[in-house]
Amino acid sequence: MIDGEMQAFPLTLDKFLDHAAKWRPDAEVVTGREGGRIDRIGYAELKDRSRRATAVLAAMGVKAGDRVATLAWNSQDHVEVWYAIMGMGAVCHTLNPRLTAEQLASMVDQSQARILIVSADLAPLAARIRAVARDVERLLIIDGEAAEGESLRPLVDAADGTGVVWGDFDETAPCGLCFTSGTTGAPKGVTYTHRSSFLHALRLLQVDTMAISGGDTVLAVVPMFHANAWGLPFAAPAAGARLVLPGRHTDGASLARLIAAEGVTVGVGVPTVWLGLLEHVEATGVVLPTLRRIIVGGAPMPPALMERLETRLGVRVQTSWGMTELSPSGVVAPSSEPSQAALAGRPAIGVDLLLTDAEGTPLPEQRGVEGHLRVRGAAVIERYFGDDATATDASGWFPTGDLARIDDDGNLMITGRAKDLIKSGGEWINPAEIEAVVGALPEVSLAAVIGRSDDKWGERPILLVETQAEVSDEALLACLRGRVASWWIPDAIFRLPRMPLAATGKIDKLRLRSEYGGG
Predict the structure, then answer these.
(1) pTM of the prediction?
(2) Residue 469: what pLDDT?
(3) Which residue in 180, 217, 250, 504 is the catalytic one?
C-alpha cells in the first residue's frame, strides 16, 4: 500500500467529558441552589456519576436510539443525565418548563419517551404531562425530592458504572431533540447528531466566536432546554473551563451573587437576562470585577442596553445570531472588534450564508443589500423530526425566515423577520428597523412594533415600549423622523410596565398581537 491512513475517531459527545475528566479533573461544574447554597463537582467525579446514571437507565430498559425526556433547570444533575443519556447512544429530549402540560405532552407523544427526568419543583407539571402523554412510564426526580416520582440521586449513588460503555455507535447517531418555540405555528422537532453537536462545540471555541478557554469561568444562563444551552455544556468541558449553572433562579440578584462568588468571566444568555442583572447592579452598586464578556443572542440587542452594560459593568458585549435549527449558533461578533448592536458577527468555518429573493433565487449582489437569509453547514438541519420532507432547498440551503444584510466586511445584520413585516396600504413596513431606532434611546429598555388592524390601510404599526427613565411620546416618535419613511411612523404608543416575554426569553409578539393588534 502507498497511501497511509488515520485512526478512526468517531466524533461522539462522550469524548468531551472523557477529555475534561482526564486533563482537567478538578475543574468544576458549579450549581446555584435554593437559599444561596452552592454545589460543586469536578469533571472527573461528574463523569463517574454520569456513567453510574447510564447504568441506572440501562437497567430500566433504555437502549441506543430511545428518547429520554428531561424537564429540568440548568444544574449539575441535569448535566449528569445529559451525558448519561447521550453517552449510551440514547437521545436526550429537552422540554421547556415554561410551556403548558398539554404542549409538552404533545412533544413527548411525538418522541415516544418512556422516561421523564425532572427537577423536583417541576414534578407537578411533570405529573400533568404524564397524565396526558401516551408513553411516559416513569418520573425520575433530580435536584431534590418530590411527592411524585422516584428520586434518581440515590439510584445513581448505588449504581456501578465501571462496566458502562460509551460511544459505541456511529457519530451520525442522534443525540438530542429540541422543539422550536412554535412562533410561526406548531412547534417542530429538531434532531441533533453527535457529529453535528461535536463540530458545533469546536466552532464555539474559535477565537473569533465565543473564544472559551480553560482559564474561563462560564455562566450559562441560557437554558439547557433551549437548543442545548447554545452548546455550552459541550464547549466548557472541551476547553476545560469551569461551568456555572444558575438553577432556576436567573433574576439579577441571584446572578450577581453567583458571578461575584465564583469569579465568572463570561456570561451567556438573552438580552432580557442581562437587563435584570444591570438593573440590580444599578440599584445596589454591587461591583463584578471578574466579568469580562457577555455573549447575547436569541433576540435583538437594544443599543441603549448594550451601552449601559458596557459602561456600567465594564464588559465587552458580543452579539450573536442563531436558531434552534442551527444547533443553534450561526454567527458571533468577535470580542476583538468594536461593539455594534446591529451587527451579529461573521460566520466561522462550518456555516455559510446566502441572501435570496422571496422565491429563493440568490441575489446577484450579496453585500450591502437586503435579502431573505438562507444557511447551510455541518450543524444545520436537513429535515425536522418525524417529517419525510426535507427542510432545505434543492441546493441544500435552509431558509431561516429572517431578512438580513451582509456588510462589506462580511458582518451579518438581521433586519427583521419575514413573518413580522407589516403590510400597510399594499406596502411593507419592517418593524425591526423602527425597533432599532427607538431601542437606541437611553430611556428605553425594550421596544416592539406590531401591526394593528386598520379599516383603511389594512394594517398600521404601533409601538410598545418598556422604559427605564421618563421619555415623552413626542421624543419616542421624533427619533424616527428622518430615519424611516414618514408613513412608517407608528400610529400609537403603548407603555408597558414589563414587556411580555416568550418561553425562550424573546419578546412575545404573539401575545402583543393578540392583546394590541385587533384594532
Answers:
(1) 0.87
(2) 93
(3) 180
